[in-house]
Write a structure and sequence with these properties.
Layout (H helix, E strand, L loop, with lengths): L6 H15 L10 E3 L7 E3 L1 H17 L4 E4 L3 E3 L4 E9 L1 H6 L5 E8 L2 E9 L4 E6 L2 E6 L2 E4 L12 E4 L13 H7 L2 E4 L2 H9 L5 E7 L1 H4 L3 H6 L3 E4 L9 E6 L2 H10 L11
Parallel strand pairs: 3-5, 11-12, 11-13
Antiparallel strand pairs: 1-2, 3-4, 5-6, 6-7, 7-8, 8-9, 9-10, 13-15, 14-15
Length: 268
């Protein structure tokens, strides 16, 4: 495999972003509003903008030939390598002072996600995945992550960020999946995907994601043993409706519950 940037560079990026986000967290914020189809309120703060600015500056200084796609400033550059970044994934909880937001930093090679990190600076946690595995770091140290071994859908824990938008997508049978699992929880943003990789959650279902919402999380989930695809079993890098599961057997059952083709086998 083509040599990836060192994981230490992901940590440098996360350090730079946290220098812009953490001092603004739980402070009085000037909140602007963007337009996003399907959302009545799509906020952005100076933390989002400044964190993406420093991320772009650092990437461009170290890897000037790499493209960058970010939520706030779009796509720049061309080539096989592309950084995909969301400076504050979870701006709504960021505004509310709830620490389930994170900075997402991913890298694709020929449009396939090859490494990524989720940094939560308030809790001092980082989760990352690369060709060596998936890892979590907190005050107790660094440990390898593994997903849960649950294969019975009726015993699974499901997370989705909000039930609000499912009415806009009647083809996604969320109610059937919700009624098939042991427990459903809401509101975890990108943190929920990290908890799936860490073995705390079995299934995450999210609607209408952008590439920067999911690309950085793909290696974390996959290298921990999980499966993440679109709802027809396709690769998830382009975003859209995304299902992540702790293992392939559970993923197949979840896809079936959603009344979509059971395509988990052979897609990764």
């Amino acid at each position: 495999m083509t040599k990836l940037p060192p994981v230490s560079f992901l940590h440098r990026l996360a350090d730079a972003a946290s220098g812009e986000t953490l001092p603004r967290f739980r402070t009085e914020l000037d909140v602007e509003e963007k337009f996003k189809p399907g959302y009545r309120f799509d906020p952005v703060t100076l933390a989002d903008k400044e964190a993406e600015r420093v991320l772009r500056d650092l990437i461009s200084s170290e890897y000037p030939d790499h493209a960058i796609l970010g939520e706030e400033y779009g796509e720049t550059g061309t080539g096989p390598w592309k950084w995909v970044i969301d400076p504050v994934d979870g701006t709504r909880p960021f505004i509310c002072g709830i620490p389930v937001w994170g900075t997402l930093i991913g890298l694709t090679l020929e449009d396939r996600s090859v490494m990524g990190m989720m940094s939560q600076p308030f809790t001092k946690e980082r989760f990352w995945g690369d060709e060596e595995g998936a890892w979590a770091q907190d005050s107790s140290g660094t440990r390898r992550m593994r997903t849960r071994s649950t294969t019975d859908l009726s015993r699974a824990i499901l997370h989705t960020n909000s039930p609000e938008r499912y009415g806009d997508f009647p083809e996604v049978n969320f109610a059937r999946l919700r009624d098939s699992v042991q427990m459903t929880r809401y509101g975890g943003e990108c943190y929920a995907f990290a908890m799936l990789a860490a073995g705390q959650i079995d299934i995450c279902l999210e609607l209408a994601l952008q590439p920067y919402d999911i690309v950085p999380l793909i290696p974390i989930i996959e290298q921990a043993g999980g499966v993440v695809t679109g709802l027809a079993g396709e690769r998830p890098e382009a975003g859209g409706h995304i299902l992540a599961s702790a293992n392939a057997a559970l993923h197949e059952q979840a896809l079936r519950a959603l009344n979509l083709p059971s395509c988990a086998r052979g897609v990764i």
